[in-house]
């Protein structure tokens, strides 16, 4: 209770002095001349209360104005986030989505650096797109990182990481047109209850992202981004599930006939060469029954080696449990033999610990067009079906055009 309220209470409740007569006696002994302010110039109790009410009114008015400004600002932020979320949830192309999100965040929030970092290997569709990232729209908005890097960023859990006063700049972002990135925030992207990556924002302002800054909206955007990534990968998987092998990510046998017919017609029309190499793991079924090995790891490793050693235009297939085929447009028999031997050597070297412990051997078969025995698609298709071409270790001259 303040002084004005005490005075008002005593004025309205004179019976108070019935319980404290000595206080009333003390008050009566005070002369008006002893007061520091003359009675006639002193504000009345009612005036004091009115003045306080006026001050409170002005204070409340100022608070309401501030709340209105905050509400309008939040409304604008929500509008911006709605547009960004719309891009996330309605995009069907992964790289296009990343590019549009980056552009919208930079335009709407004045952020100088925007990047989506995803864990390499989290999904084989993403990993499979890695070699083409430099030529795809939106590649500048994406970066693939390893699991250890992601855990190092968020070693304290799921909370966003804010860094400011970075000298001489951010290690994550390159120097922008406005200068080096001096503050950044990293928000984890959830996917099926796990961290799939991070949404990273950077600013040239060294104090823009700092500890204590509320990140509710950014975390919600990262959640929507995780949902969008899941949707895009799901649609990609549904689109390719009839064409791609679920273990290796290579084309499966159902796509082989279509691809062979298309490439053979193209080779004959433009008078080009076409070869096909089959790599067969020797005694695959026996190995699976007698050796303590991870069959899936072997298949994935072979597919990785094939992808690393093939050209952009080559087509890679897993046709049976332990069989792989590589369709080589524009490659004649001699070059196909050389490539086949190189693939065999790389696979056996990678999967066998040493010569004494070698357990995995690769058999090779090659079909090549034009060849004396292959003049049309039916001949080529029949040769593929039986795959009884010459062993590349035999005289390769008989395979040349």
Notable features of this structure?
401 residues; GGDEF domain-containing protein; 5-stranded mixed β-sheet; 13 helices; single chain; alpha+beta; GGDEF_dom
Describe this protein's structure.
This protein is of the alpha+beta class. The chain is built from 13 helices and ten strands. The strands form two sheets. A five-stranded mixed beta sheet has the order 2-1-5-4-3. A five-stranded mixed beta sheet has the order 6-8-9-7-10, sandwiched between helices. The protein is rod-shaped, with a radius of gyration of 38 Å. The model is unreliable at 37-42, 127-138 and 388-401 (pLDDT under 50).
Tell me the distance between the termini: 106 Å
Tally of extended strands?
10
Order of helices and strands: HHHHHEHEHEEEHEHEHHEEHEH
Q: Strand count, sense and closure of the main sheet?
A: 5 strands, mixed
Helix segment tally: 13
Quaternary state reads single chain
Judged by helices, strands and strand pairing, the structural class is: alpha+beta
Low-confidence segments, given as residue ranges, are 37-42, 127-138, 388-401
Strand content: 15-25%
